[in-house]
Amino acid sequence: MLKVFQLRVARSVLGLGVRDIGVYINLSRSTISKIERKEIITNLDIKEEQNTILVKIFNDKGIFFSDENTISYKKESLSCNDYLTRFQLRGGRAILGLSQRELSENTGIEKNVLNYLENLPNTSHIYKADEIQNDVNSKLKDFFHKNNISFPTENTIKINS
Question: Which domain holds residue 106?
Answer without folding.
Answer: 86-159
